[in-house]
Predict the structure.
Amino acid sequence: MASPPAQPTLTFPAWPQAGAEEREGLLRALDQEGWWRNGGSEVDSFEREFAELHGAPYAIATTNGTHALELALSVLGVGPGDEVIVPAFTFIASSLAVQRLGAVPVPADVHPETYCLDIDATARLITPRTKAVMPVHMAGQVADLDALAELAGAAGVAVLQDAAHAHAARWRGRRMGEFGSMAAFSFQNGKLMTAGEGGALLLPDEESHRQAYLRHGCGRPPGDRVYAHLTQGSNYRLNEFSAAVLRAQLTRLEAQIAVREQRSRQLEAALARIPGVVPQGRDDRCDVKSHYMAMVRLPGVTPERRTAVVDALNGHGIPAFVGFPPVYRTSGYWQGPYSGDADEIGKRCPVAEEIGGDCVWLHHRVLLADPATVDRLAEVFAEVVAGP
């Protein structure tokens, strides 16, 4: 492979993006009497606005997306010895949130086109210990929520959406808060909207919201002055400054997703013409894909070659990364009585094994570039892949 250029050949819009709205929000929060949610109004306002955009009755803002998952699992009553089915191909937080509650993450294989939970593979793993199924909307491609709801309903288990990649996404016209299940989001620095860190949890009804509110604030009810810790929990509260930034970020989210959709169609078509490159597929029932990242596979690539490709792309100024390893192939995966040997799990997750070894992803800011830059990106990608 040829050496990367001395200077990057491509430039893309910066991320995160901020403007006067974020500055105004920070000053607004600064001028309040309190800088935490119980003394200000930014968190309350953000929760209402985020819930409204996603069609949910309620939302709770949290310190980060992993904590949003932990909070949701706690509300569902997940505890030691319970099982939660997670995708075998996902960021480790999907598994870690389960593990932190003493429960067992059970990896299920993913669909070879969408990289989301495979329905048949999920069905085979439901046992009397299963408390929940956690689909991940990979790169903004929404998992088959219809089939998952039917499967979970028949088995008497809950669905918890890991929507860290799926801000403002839609499935058959329905928003993530319109499915009667909880959905957890992340606002980490690289996400589609960000305050550096942060998260949110959509709640489907008043009781789940009440439980989530209690548990995200050490079990204390609103307005508590006597330390009435009504249930177990932790401190997952978001601060007022982060909420002010997120309110500003929310105002431009849908417009940015519309641009990403246009550029994504352009990029996917170009990359699909490159021999040895297979872009992530689409399920057209996901009628708004939020495009957290552009994912492609390089079937048959060796680990060394994949790393070299990613390094070369970065040398050209393209923000590229290797894909996630299967969660059970990481040292952070649960080692417990029901976890199973990684090689044994791998036998039932052949698709995750392949994607975990050959996937490359590009940060979503490449999809905010102008059309000519996207065309040039595809040309450079072809040159790099074809190189020695």
Summary: The chain is about 40% helix and 15% strand.
